[in-house]
Amino acid sequence: MTVDAVIVGSGPGGSTVADVLTAAGWTVTIVEKGRNHLLDPDDLTRPAHDFSNDEIKFHNRYFLGPDPLIEPRTFRTDEGDGDHSFVGEVNSVPSTVGGGGTHADGKVPRFMPDDFRLHSLLGPQPEADVADWPVTYDELEPYYAEVETAVGVAGTDGANPFAGPRSGPFPMQSGAAMYGATLSTAAAERLGYHPYPAPTAVNSVPYDGRPACNNCGFCAYFGCPIHAKGDPVAMLRRAMATGRAELLPETFVSRVHIDGRRSSGVDVVGPDGAERFIAARHVVLAAGAMETPRLLLLSGLDHPVIGRYLMTHFQTIVAGSLPFRTHAERGRAVTHVHDDMIVGDAASRAAAAEAGLPWIRGGMVEHSGAALPILEAKIYPWGSAHPDLMADSPIRARLWAFIMQGEDLPYAHNRLDLDPSIRDARGFPVARITYRPGRHELAACHHFGPRLADILTEMGAEWTAVTSSPGIGNASSPEAVPESRHNMGTVRMGADPATSAVDPTGRLHGLDNVFVADSSVFVTASGYGPTLTLAALASRAAHLMAGTKPVSAHPG
Amino acid sequence: MTRRGGSAPTWLSDDEFATLSAACDCMIPASEKGPGAVAAGVPHYIDGLLGAFTVEPPRIWAGGPTSGRMGGEAAFVRFHKLTALDELAWRMRIEGSLGLPEREFNGPVTGWQERYRRGLTALGEDFAGAGLDEQAVRLRSDQEFATLLYQHVCEGMYGAPEYGGNRDGVAWRAIGFAGDTQPRGWTDAEVTNP
After folding, report:
1. Which residues in chain B have Cβ-Cβ distances shorter than 8 Å to A154?
2. Tens digit of each residue's pLDDT (9 = 90 or more) over A47-84
3. Peptide bond connecting A68 to the previous residue in cis, omega within 30 degrees of 0
4. β-pairing, A275-285 with A2-8?
5. CB contact under 8 A, B185 and A216
């Protein structure tokens, strides 16, 4: 049997493609290398009940995968480190049905219109290959609207003065503000910033057959026990309900078959280790910005751009301890953000000039706290002081923090290729990451970090501390591995086959029926989480494949 | 030996368990703020982890979606079954590669069982009877083992009780943490105006 499309990966990109294509009458097979904890195995149109408020399971034991013993990655900052300087967990997005949508805390901002034309607006950067996207915000807006409706995004219309124009309101209103956020947003406003309720794919009211969030507090890096998080369970359930989608969990795609300008399908390794071929009229790669280029390289596609321009947000983390409990254990993990550090001001322009750069851009700043006691306990020293520290809890119960998802510029030297010696448990070469931040990222962190600390001081913090991920300094330490899971780039989109790997529709240059539908096509990183934009691009690619148009009717 | 507040170990010997218990209490001692690691069941958490494969399903991932502490079904106690790859990963991590080719695709792996056996032995047969200061000195003499042990002590102290530690949620109460909250969660008012 030949399916209309085989989709590699079941995260937000693959799920969106499955939803659009099955609605258009296509048959699809969704191949996912991880386990299925998202959908009821006896009825794939219903959610499963495997997720829980369990720190050990989700933070310490790789329940959502990938397990770095079975599927490691390798890392180095540059060729001078040798083949690799670290083997293990590197920028791991969950390897499970639902992909990164399962562990995210559901913030799904759109990019700004300016994010798609940085080169035209701001000009080049000396060490990076900044380019305009071949897609504009206006072209993408109907697909943003469709995806927001599909997953159910809660937001507050008009609250963000820097947001791009919208064709319609948010599908539902924002949920309850976290207590700490009410204080940090007030402090930020007093200092002239513009915080607003974060658009989140977390139900504030019952929506699409799923309940409203009950604020359990186990959000970031946890699956949602009640499936109030809509991304991507909503799209997968709808695709399965058509009867035209097949889901193959625990199945690894090892090769895309290419013959001339076409692919005939993919080789897979099933849960029992048996290999087989899936014939398909179209192949859609949606395995994320690490696994999609890895698969292309495993398949012998070695366009010089594939793997290049790896981006991940450079995180500036600013924490402070308050003289009272901030109750970050209650609510959606992050309910408020501000974008002023993306837009910049006279001071940031002066900081850029001082650093010898034409411009710097920060990122969306998340107002958040800390909620997990194991994580806290491991930071404190052991011994007689431990019980008092845990009870006083300066870095959990009394902590408030900002995380700036700093824009990471596209550098050709930041790349992914196949490690020459390390294998996964199935015997295939793993992805090797070569990454180091550039002057832009360091200058932005250096400039914006102290300003974020000022907000915490205004809020009443007893002390503040500024750190970053990756850490600044020792390139050979494990801290050189970025904590961010916002992986982007590596299969760049563009009109010119010499400088990009996929065309403006998401189709691989030179191949008629192979598409990429994840954040690997991103041209620049912006300062926003990639999920909504990658899903909107996936929706657009799928509609162009099927010859259909986006819809944003409220599912009720 | 004494085995305060718990059943016999499933994987460690009684002597090893006694040494482990003393080391756990050295890392998180009892105080006026709450119980120490032994009273909270941390040694049983670690023994259960090292012996995870002595029961079926192995004690790796507690079930979902609720524990029953805030309503709902007591489903945490139904541990998830492992796939073949899950089992390979966790046997490698706990047992080590043991010279088995299917576990050494990237070279030999020393498992937690061996690291605990070696680490506890190095602390000395008289460790449990030594003074706190002496215990701390011996623990610090092997930073690699102390780091591994402390990771597990923290998990056993402040993790879900279904894994064998944090007995009846005693450590959560000591630090003012509510633990798992589903299916109740928090009301909007409790979130915004606690």
Report:
1. none
2. 999 999 999 999 999 999 999 999 999 999 999 999 99
3. no
4. parallel
5. yes
